[in-house]
Each structure stands twice: as structure tokens, then as C-alpha cells.
Specification:
Number of strands: 2
Number of helices: 2
Oligomer: single chain
Structural class: alpha+beta
Strand order of the largest sheet: 1-2
Radius of gyration: 19 Å
Shape: rod-shaped
Largest sheet: 2 strands, antiparallel
Distance between the termini: 37 Å
Helix content: 55-70%
Strand content: 5-15%
Number of domains: 1
């Protein structure tokens, strides 16, 4: 299954496994390089998925007049 087809949760689990394997100190250099490259792709994929979701989120606000409305979600980096 390619990184793009994995769910966000599956990608995080795979990243956790990669980190555990790399921290074990038992991987050969070539395997570690491959795992690192896979991890980079997974991080990119997860980041893209989070950005997509963030764009879809709206926050509910109560105006001064008491009316309820929605407005686009702004991340702290946007504010």
C-alpha cells in the first residue's frame, strides 16, 4: 500500500514503528536509509492530510448581536 493510500492513523503507526526500529540500533545502514526515506514520505503525506482537514474546519462564533455564525478556521500560523 502506498503512503498516499494509507489512512492518517496507519501512517502514524508506521512512522512509530520506523522510529522504534531505528532507535533499536539493530538496523543495517542501508535499511536505516530506506526507513528514513519512507518516514520522510509518510511525514509529508500526514502533513498534507492535516492541511486539507484544517482548510475544511470552520469555527462556530457568536456575534455581538447574539447570532451564531461560522467562519473559516485560522491556524496560529495564519493569525
Amino acid at each position: 500500500m502506498s503512503e498516499e493510500k494509507k489512512s492518517f492513523e496507519d501512517s502514524l503507526k508506521r512512522l512509530d514503528k520506523i522510529v522504534q526500529d531505528m532507535e533499536s540500533g539493530e538496523m543495517e545502514l542501508d535499511a536505516m536509509i530506506s526507513a528514513f526515506e519512507e518516514g520522510q514520505r509518510l511525514v509529508k503525506s500526514c502533513s498534507e492530510k492535516l492541511n486539507e482537514v484544517e482548510k475544511k474546519i470552520e469555527k462556530v462564533v457568536k456575534g455581538a448581536d447574539g447570532q451564531i455564525a461560522t467562519e473559516p478556521f485560522e491556524s496560529e500560523s495564519d493569525a
